[in-house]
Specification:
alpha+beta, 5-stranded mixed sheet, two-stranded antiparallel sheet, 16 helices, 9 strands, about 70% helix
Length: about 575
């Protein structure tokens, strides 16, 4: 899984500026909305030709920057680079149309016309480029994240299947390895005992030294080095279906995002109200714009207050947003001051339409931002679940190796040594126990249910206190519920015991610790956190940078861990995955 960026806006802006839709929509917006306004000529040429030139100039600049950004790798863009692109784009889209119009018509504009253009054009151009880049980027990023989350969910299911297969495959290979090595040796010993062979005692000793002990050590070392090397991230192609589209529209959304007050007010100022000032001077803004902004902001904030924490299907949020957009347009268009003979009613109608559109698009943008946040959170949850499942399998494999090693080293080796002593003293021996031992070993491996059981976590900690008494003081804190939770899971219990044992050994060996405190807490039901804090009496001056045995154990059986080393105190914090759902 890829890491998610800490801020979404650099990614959203990058997606917007690298989209072919940005120059296309920018040009279409400039050119087509010109038909809504009753202006015949601009700088000596047809108003429609002027709008075409203005839109094309900005679109060409945006295409140039799109080409440059697409040549570079990366998924986000710095704010400084965005500012530079928008500044260059705004200036180019402001001055280039003036030059082209002069070349086409030969018209020499008045000083007041130039001043008006240089005041209003940059603001409108900058506002359109920035807001369109944000809107398009939000849509693209939201869609890609939604697809990524859907892929991740499918990948999670595939990884879970893969992990189960990996676990069973490893158990089968272990079963085959153990039986190939032990079965012939045990059969020979059993046959020799039954036939009362005089060479059976040396055969038993040779079996212990040549097969049993090396096999035990091999299994023990494998538990520290085994990695899921064959596990690969699944790449799954999903077909677009009506179900996925329907699910997107029926997914619950916050009712408050049916309006976006602050974004709506911002785009009102950048587009329709700026156009109002451009067409009819500042007085029109004072008579029409200011009352509209006040009433509009109050109505949208009141709606959000009323909406509260309500959740509605997404399609209902869109319908409500469209209805509110109509209301905002009515608040502007029905203002009595707007119907004065001073203002052309076609231009007022055009501005009313732009307010309806901008209100709806602001809510649409806010909805996509909300989807981005939700999908990012969902992706993080899936990543954590994948890490949890992998950690659980590693714990189980480590547990299997350790148990097998102990069973063979302590159980089989002890039984063979006892048989050799009994035979040497001419005592009767029953060899059937060897076959029974191998059967029990196979059963324990296949079912992960070995006869040996670890002590309760509290009992284990008390044993450690007693063992290290006089050398270091050990205190621990674990609630009764957490203790029961851990002790009910044999694999988890064994893993935590191993890490505690290793952490104490390291603290005494490397820091000459005299005080060690152990804290175990249950975080969410599927994660256990262990914290081991020790004082530092004498720190090793030349510590190796290579990973030691302790680090390898932590990597193998902890989902995550970190060691914070200070001059006076060291802290090990480790988290353990609890196997409750993976099976």
């Amino acid at each position: 899984m890829s890491d998610r960026p800490t801020s979404i806006f650099p990614v959203v802006l990058h997606r917007g500026l690298t989209s072919i839709w940005l120059p296309t929509i920018y040009w279409g917006n400039i050119f087509l909305t010109g038909y809504l306004f009753p202006v015949d000529t601009v700088f000596g040429i047809s108003a429609h030709h002027w709008d075409f030139i203005v839109g094309a100039s900005g679109a060409l600049i945006l295409l140039f920057f799109r080409f440059r950004l697409n040549r570079k790798t990366g998924i986000q863009i710095s704010i400084l680079k965005v500012a530079a692109i928008l500044a260059v784009g705004t200036l180019s889209a402001t001055f280039l149309p003036l030059v082209i119009a002069r070349l086409i018509s030969g018209y020499v504009p008045l000083k007041s016309e130039i001043q008006d253009h240089l005041i209003f054009a940059p603001v409108g151009t900058l506002g359109q480029m920035f807001t369109m880049a944000l809107a398009i980027g939000a849509v693209r990023f939201s869609r890609s994240l939604r697809n990524q989350v859907a892929d991740d969910r499918l990948a999670l299911a595939a990884i879970q299947v893969h992990l189960r297969e990996e676990l069973e495959s490893k158990k089968s290979s272990l079963l085959q390895e153990i039986n190939q090595m032990l079965a012939p040796v045990l059969a020979t010993i059993q046959s020799g005992i039954s036939s009362a062979s005089s060479t059976i005692v040396p055969i038993i000793h040779n079996a212990i030294d040549g097969v049993v002990r090396p096999l035990s050590h091999t299994l023990d070392s494998q538990s520290e080095t085994y990695r899921l090397e064959n596990l690969k991230r699944q790449t799954i192609k999903r077909s677009i279906s009506f179900k996925s589209i329907r699910d997107g529209f029926t997914q619950k959304a916050d009712l408050r995002i049916a309006v976006s007050p602050w974004l709506s007010l911002t785009v009102y100022l950048l587009f329709p109200l700026l156009s109002l000032v451009y067409l009819y001077e500042l007085e029109a803004f004072l008579k029409i714009g200011i009352p509209f902004l006040l009433i509009s902001s109050i109505s949208m904030l009141v709606f959000q207050k009323f909406a509260g924490e309500r959740k509605v299907p997404t399609y209902q949020a869109f319908l409500i947003s469209f209805f509110i957009s109509i209301i905002q347009g009515a608040l502007f268009g029905l203002n009595p001051a707007a119907h004065s003979d001073l203002y052309d009613q076609e231009s007022i109608s055009a501005l009313t339409f732009s307010i309806i559109l901008l209100t709806f698009m602001s809510a649409f943008f806010d909805l996509n931002l909300n989807r981005i946040r939700e999908n990012s959170a969902a992706a993080n949850v899936i990543n954590q679940e994948i890490a949890h499942n992998i950690s659980v399998v590693r714990q189980r494999l480590w547990y299997i190796h350790k148990r097998l090693s102990r069973q063979i080293h302590g159980g089989l080796q002890g039984e063979l040594q006892a048989m050799a002593l009994q035979l040497a003293n001419n005592k009767e021996v029953r060899p059937e126990g060897l076959t029974a031992f191998l059967d029990k070993l196979n059963f324990g491996l296949l079912n992960e249910g070995f006869k040996e059981k670890s002590p309760d976590i509290s009992e284990f900690l008390e044993e450690l206190q007693e063992f290290w008494r006089g050398i270091t003081s050990i205190t621990y804190e674990v609630s009764a519920d957490t203790s029961n939770h851990i002790s009910a899971n044999a694999i988890l219990l064994e893993c935590i015991n191993e890490v505690i044992r290793e952490a104490i050994n390291n603290a005494i060996k490397h820091a000459s610790a005299t005080n060690i405190s152990i804290s175990i807490s249950d975080l969410t039901g599927n994660l256990i956190t262990l914290e081991v804090v020790n004082d530092v009496v004498k720190s090793e001056s030349s510590a190796s940078t290579d990973k030691g045995l302790g680090s390898k154990i932590y990597d193998e059986i902890c989902q995550s861990w970190k060691l914070e080393q200070g001059k006076l105190e060291s802290t090990l914090i480790a988290t353990f995955a609890v196997d409750e759902s993976f099976a």
